[in-house]
Design a protein that fits this description.
Strand order of the largest sheet of chain B: 1-2
Helix content of chain B: over 70%
Mean pLDDT of chain A: 90
Low-confidence stretches of chain B: 1-9
Structural class of chain A: alpha/beta
Helix content of chain A: 40-55%
Order of helices and strands of chain A: HHEEEHEEHEHHHEHEHEEHH
Number of strands of chain A: 10
Number of helices of chain A: 11
Mean pLDDT of chain B: 83
Structural class of chain B: mainly alpha
Shape of chain B: globular
Radius of gyration of chain A: 18 Å
Oligomer: heterodimer
Largest sheet of chain A: 6 strands, mixed
Distance between the termini of chain B: 12 Å
Number of strands of chain B: 2
Number of helices of chain B: 21
Chain lengths: 257, 604
Amino acid sequence: MTIADRALTEELAGRKDMIVCRGVKKWFGDFQALRGVDITVKDREVMVVLGPSGSGKSTLIRCINRLEAHQEGSIVVDGVELTNDLRNIEKIRSEVGMVFQQFNLFPHLTVLDNVTLAPIWVRKKPKAEAVAKAMELLERVGIPEQAAKFPGQLSGGQQQRVAIARSLAMEPRVMLFDEPTSALDPEMIKEVLDVMKELARSGMTMIVVTHEMGFAREVADRLVFMESGEIVEVGTPEHFFANPKEERTKLFLSQIL
Amino acid sequence: MSDTSLSNMSRQPETPLPSPARWVRDNLFSSISNTLQTIFFSLIIFGLLRWVLGQVFSEESDWESVATNIRLLMTYNYPADQFVRIWVAAGTVFFAIGSSFAAWNINPAITIRRLVVGFVGFGVFLLLCAVIAPSVAPSSIRNGMYIVGAVLAVGGLVVRRLVPGAHLRFVPFSRLLTGAAAIIVALIWILPFGRHSFSDGELTIERGVSVASSTKVPWTVLFVVLLVAFFGGRVLAARFAPVMRRALIAWWVIGPAFVLFLVLRDPAFDWGRVWSVDVPIAAAFALGGGALLYVLARPGRDDLARVVGAVLVAFAIFNWIAAFAGWYPMLQKVRISFLLVGLVTLLVPTFAGERSARIRLASSWIGLIVIVHWLLTAINTESTLVISAPPFLGGLVLTVTIAYYVMLASFPLGVLLSLARTSKMPIFRVLSTSFIEVVRGVPLITVLFFFSIMLPLFLPRGMGISDLAAVFIGYTLFSAAYMAENLRGGLQSVRRGQYEASDALGLSTVQRTVFIVLPQALRVAIPNLVGQAIATFKETSLIAIVGGFDILRIANSTIPNQPDFLGQKRPALLFIALVYFVFTYSMSKSAQNLEKKLQAGQAR
């Protein structure tokens, strides 16, 4: 049993495996970013990944949708193994949505176009259906009135919510969040976190890399602490914050709490 | 969190301008250094102006050489009895321009104040010219400049005083267009440009009279057509703008070629052959290709489409090799059609979709084949025109046609080249880099020489290439290399996050390039691309070296060799300098407008 598996509650253990990483290793030239990561993310689980900068958290989730390629080990997403095979990559990418720290909205398209572009051209949905779904999602994230504006005219919090709606439009099974609130002003962080909480409550499988401890405590099913490319500790929020086992975890928590 | 909504309906009003006297004091004479600079540069400007006016009015400059040779400069040796074709061609272009203004809702924000300031400035300029003009200038012209200048300057100032809120109210584009058209038409009818006519090869010149009706009337009709197209287009655009835009874009791509080869060149179609050979071939490709595309565009048939497309392209290339080696005969247009089918089939996966999308794809294909075959048949048919010395194009028509189609064709080619150069696959990178570097290392003259003189030597017997086509192909390849480099700068400016977001959403590489990367890269590259387009327009004068009679050659060689105007180069050259300036300034200005429009809502 891996460290990760040991922390599974009974409820979680019963669900199917959504993402399984076994012995994942990644190098950037000579620098090893991931040193053998083993983790299983269950269906409808919210997993929060913590750690100091350079610990490999972003690298890990970017490996999951092949924005980075891992050199050793295996990653299996919803039963499909992630290899160099383009077909597998395309399949996995249509199941996995990603929200970036820098939003990465398409600046030359309106908000509505940003959200409907992929459903129309990748899923081949008719335009009317895509637009209806997009408006529904924009309402869900709280900004339906901004549909005709350009990203440059929105605030950071609004842009990130559009980014979330854009990923949701592809109806993914898993959502990856790479430090979604790190580039936001404090007053906008709450509105984005509220959207993410609602998303978690609705049953989406989420992996969130973040420094927002309040969010982690409230919403996460499991917390993962990474350092120097390996997983140091995994636990439920109660156990993690109350009595962390590893020294490194205690040190990290003392620095940020 | 401010909501800066930029709608097209309301505009930011301009700040009121201080009085002219105040403005002059603040901007020109505010400090010793400013005053000295004002004096220094004024002297230079006055000196230049005086020199130019000296050239314009000098006794050696016979402006009749320009006035009577306008037709030569515009169309060179186009037969006079067929000239109505030129007017029809110009009419279609004017119609398209008017409709385009309407369909894209061109509406530059010009306040009354700015317009008035323009008039006042022009009036002051005329007065200045009248004062500085050399003594040899005819007094009628000098007096004319005084009067018009005074009217404009004083009138403008009065209007500015009287009209309230001149800096807040905008002049609608319709009024500007109508006003400009009216002024131009009035000038043609009133000013005595001189009249000339050819009879039995003899040129008769009547100086000091207004232009012949055979010129006045068509120009008036052209401007009426422009206004009708504009106002009618506006009515239509209220309901059908997107359809109009698509139709007009299609027209601007293929329309001028149509007008050129079917109206101006007037091919003498052999109807027997057309119905028995050309139409069946066209129908076969149109319907066969359409059916093929319809079947392959179903979602899920991506791989099949790619395989079929690759096979067709390979077959098309094989056809060309066979043509060179003489293995089997095949009509050029059939070879071209196979290549088109192959290329479009390769692109099918990107545009696949549900039933209506597939029908649209198939019908666009049919339309494309009809037009392409019509054009190719026309190009390969003999012309009915009796031309003294081919080609049938010359003067400004030649310059504009070559420049227009070179710009149009080199753009997609340049895009492909720059994408290849920045691609991950080494073969594309190496091929495109070598092509670009080789072409950039050679002067345009060399390229034109190679294509019009050397290339025909390499072609197998039976395969010819007209002068026009040779120049066009060479120039396009040349221009494409420069476009590619300009665009590469734009491509490098697109942030990596855009690629990542597109990949995360599942967009294919082609979709990502077309929808995300290129639009952003092009916005950044516009200043460079427009600069390249302007250079292309001016460098068309080099086709003179390979036998083309463009407007510069006519002004430089043909007019000075006429017995009535021996040695008269200067007036004609000054005139075409003005013509070039009008075209290139319009290109710059519309590029600026485009940039401003694209910035809407982007920068924060």
